From TrEMBL:
Higher taxonomy: Bacteria, Bacillati, Actinomycetota, Actinomycetes, Geodermatophilales
Organism domain of life: Bacteria
Organism, as annotated: Geodermatophilus africanus
Gene3D superfamilies for the chain: Immunoglobulins
Record's signal peptide: none
Gene Ontology annotations of biological process type: carbohydrate metabolic process
Pfam families, alphabetized: DUF1416 (PF07210)
Annotated protein name in UniProt: DUF1416 domain-containing protein
């Protein structure tokens, strides 16, 4: 069983003026992908964290500002997306091909 926190929901109580949040959804063929693993990799492709998407395909990471790679792994395939995250809320979508 994965020890990742529950994904989705609001960011109540999170000070977005001091926190860097990377969140979004994983999609495949026009639909969200539940139960996909999303890995957060730093600029050197070093593994940093991993979460499992919610039933709505949602994921969230708290990270430092900078360039990050999101890698999604699911039975239907895999996808990657590079994001440059600033302090605040950084939203993105990872498409699985």
């Amino acid at each position: 069983m994965c020890g990742a926190p529950k994904q989705g929901g609001a960011l109540a109580g999170v000070d977005l003026s001091t926190q860097t949040v990377i969140q979004g959804q994983v999609w495949h063929d026009g639909a969200p992908v539940a139960g996909a693993y999303v890995r957060l990799l730093d600029s050197t492709d070093e593994f940093t964290a991993e979460v499992v998407t919610s039933p709505e395909g949602e994921f969230r990471f708290f990270a430092a500002p900078g360039e990050w790679k999101l890698r999604s792994l699911a039975p239907v395939g895999r996808g990657e997306r590079v994001v440059t995250a600033d302090v605040g809320l950084n939203e993105t979508t990872v498409a699985i091909s």
